[in-house]
Amino acid sequence: MGSLSGILQRPFIAVTAVAVASISSDFSDKIPSQRPTEATSSSSFSDLSHNSTLDFLKESRTSFAFVSKLENLSFVTKIHAPVLKFSFPIPTTSCDYVRNLHASLVSSTVLSNLYQSAALTKASKQIAPSPKFSSPPSEVMYRWHLPEPTSLDIRGSSACSVAKSRTVVVLLGWLGAKQKHLKRYAEWYTSRGFHAITFTFPMTEILTYQLDGKVEQHIGLLVNHLADWLEEEHGKNLVFHTFSNTGWLTYGAILEKFQKHDSSVMGRIKGCIVDSAPVAAPDPQVWASGFSAAFLKKNSVATKGLTTLDSTGMEVPMSSKEDIVPKPAVTEAALLLVLEKIFDVVLKLPTVNRRLSDVLDTLSSSQPSCPQLYIYSSADRVIPADSVESFIKEQRQAGREVRACNFVSTPHVDHFRNDPKLYTSQLSQFLADCVLTSCRESR
């Protein structure tokens, strides 16, 4: 019983007819359209890039994906990215950085520096060949997104620009999330001068989870690359942004591996943002709700927030649950019932229970001493708000610096799309106060 696939197979066959009709929808409409289209974005590079780079951007319509030093990893070999032909060293002092920024207006040195600072491993280091994973190009495990050249503030604080260019925000996706779903979040960070990594799992790998299997191996590869990147230069840091319990548990597994690899790396984590999580216990109902939402996508009741109609007939968020809460359709109710029965068994399996307990223990008692920000909602149908608030209380009692924001009426992992202004203001304030401390000190 080391694999979930055998356990899930028979019950899933029974509810296939229930789920198939609804699986065709996508999460793409859950992401806010705050930024220009890719074609528009690519035009901003016209004065900084070669024609070949522009052609690539128009044809691929994807964000930069750093792969030049990951070519031996089969799950990223199909990612194509323009290789910038520069060889300038990344500056190590504020003065050098300002001079390079000034020169970049003519010579495109900024792109060179950002390209080099995005290296995952040193050129002199050799990584042992990894197991061959056959994932489709659409299911690449993770991508590196470079900061946008226009985000560099050459007239502002050079210390702040340096701090951003030496910080990587690692975005850990929710169950069923794909790279395209995290792209808008990555773009928000890169537009402000940060590096970003988007990390997701194919649903098939979650369903066939095995101890030390593909999921754990992918996490191990990411941990090794992040550790190597941190070792390249003093002053580099990490920020984690997790989504739902899947992203949060992935974060716990990463912390475990960091502690075993080099515990000093924990001190380089400067902040953690937790979106729509956690439930710090193996709860069958929560797992059933999460998988149901992943299967049914926008047809699931989990994607519906608490809304009502105002006097003009417009849909507006409710401030409480006084009105009727959306109920799941009969088909979804049946699916939830079956899944809950399945996970009531699965989560009690010795190997599964022990692995979850280890990760949850790390997240509860062995997190780094960095500040934490929890973004959640009373309308979340997957992660109960009281579970999040209970965990926040425990972390504060343990002496952690914790911030929290209840969006009240927005659905699971949909806070950014529903209220982008509040969401981004929370992120901006958190980063300014907890991550970019060098900016305040230099002013």
Structural write-up:
It is a single-pass membrane protein. The chain is of the alpha/beta class and 443 residues long. It has a single domain, classed as 3-Layer(aba) Sandwich (Rossmann fold), CATH 3.40.50.1820. 46% of the residues lie in helices and 10% in strands. It contains 18 helices and nine strands. Strands 1-3-2-4-5-8-9 form a seven-stranded mixed sheet, sandwiched between helices. It starts with a helix and ends with a helix.
Helix and strand layout, with pairings?
Elements: H1 4-14, H2 16-20, H3 38-43, H4 51-60, H5 94-107, H6 109-117, E1 142-145, H7 158-165, E2 167-172, H8 179-190, E3 195-199, H9 203-207, H10 214-232, E4 237-243, H11 244-261, E5 269-275, H12 284-296, E6 307-309, E7 315-317, H13 330-346, H14 350-365, E8 372-376, H15 385-397, E9 402-406, H16 415-418, H17 420-435, H18 437-442
Parallel strand pairs: 2-3, 2-4, 4-5, 5-8, 8-9
Antiparallel strand pairs: 1-3, 6-7
Concise overview:
The chain is an alpha/beta fold.
Structure keywords:
Rossmann fold; about 450 residues; seven-stranded mixed beta sheet; alpha/beta; two-stranded antiparallel ribbon; about 10% strand; single chain
- H and E string: HHHHHHEHEHEHHEHEHEEHHEHEHHH
Distance from first to last alpha carbon = 59 Å
Number of domains: 1
Work out the number of β strands: 9
* Biggest sheet architecture: 7 strands, mixed
What CATH architecture do you see?
3-Layer(aba) Sandwich
Strand order of the largest sheet: 1-3-2-4-5-8-9
Helix tally equals 18
Classify the fold: give the CATH topology.
Rossmann fold
Question: Could you name the ranges where pLDDT drops below 50 across 5 or more consecutive residues?
Answer: 5-138
